[in-house]
Amino acid sequence: MGYSVRAYAVDLQRLRALVGSADEALIATLVSEHGHTLAEVDRLDAGAPSAAEAVAALVRGRMEDGESNFKYGYALELACRQLGQELSNQHWSRMHGEWFDAVEDAFTELGGKTKVSNDVFWSGPPVELPFIDDFPAIGTVPAEGVKPLLAELDGVLAKARSTQENAALRELLAWLRIAERDALGIVTFYY
């Protein structure tokens, strides 16, 4: 067992426009298509709001700070799944928190300057959410941040030997290539 990162290439302007749109049809779609996922989130904490209510609050732009703020993070992930493209996570699943440090160290040893973990996985959500003090941790790479990070990763990985950490960096590079190709940002969820 361990933790995983779920990453999505998504149009961040479209995602931001969704929050507060009060698109009742979208709320109904998200709740009906992801009922099992929402039930899993509610099993983590039965407190208010329910996971379905968190989806509705996100889309209506009526989120309230409380004990179950993490449900808004999962609601945001469902919105990213609906609007964007889920990216592979072969090298970002079944891991422990130390994996981020190992990958960061490998990147630094290759000559990377960017703090990949901070910029990709811990930079925060692309929309305003009530503070989430635990999982999911959310990171955002805006569309304008994709190309510089892609260039840096591409440059250092050209001379990299094959290791598990470098395979994770190559997978991140693949995410960035998809985002650049389609002029999208990336949103990550770690839990």
Q: Could you walk me through the main structural features you see in this protein, from its secondary elements to its overall organization?
A:
The chain is α+β, with helices and mostly antiparallel strands. It has one domain (5-190). The chain has helices spanning 12-18, 24-33, 35-44, 51-60, 70-83, 98-109, 116-121, 143-157, 164-181; strands at 5-10, 85-87, 137-141, 185-190. The longest helix has 18 residues, at 164-181.
**Helix coverage percent:** 40-55%
Strand content: 5-15%
Mass-distribution shape = globular
Tally of structural domains: 1
Q: Structural class, from helix and strand content? A: alpha+beta
| Mean pLDDT over all positions | 94
Biggest sheet strand order reads 2-1-4-3
Strand-and-helix sequence, N→C?
EHHHHHEHHEHHE
DSSP summary, beta strand count: 4
Main sheet attributes: strand count, strand direction, barrel closure:
4 strands, antiparallel
Radius of gyration: 17 Å
Count of individual helical segments: 9
Q: Identify the quaternary structure here.
A: single chain
Q: List the uncertain runs.
A: none
Brief summary:
With 191 residues, the protein is an alpha+beta fold. Helices cover 53% and strands 10% of the residues. It is built from 9 helices and 4 strands, in the order βαααααβααβααβ.
